[in-house]
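Hypothesis: this fold can be encoded by more than one sequence.
Test: take the structure tokens below, design a sequence, compare later.
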């Protein structure tokens, strides 16, 4: 499901922006 993957990536992005840590993204 492309839409599902896109939404998941969006949530990851929001979490990354909220934390502001690159380590959280690469972990």
């Amino acid at each position: 499901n492309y839409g599902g993957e896109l939404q998941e990536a969006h949530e990851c992005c929001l979490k990354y922006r909220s934390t502001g840590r690159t380590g959280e993204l690469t972990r």
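Residues 1-26 form one domain. The mean pLDDT is 74.
Hypothesis status: open.
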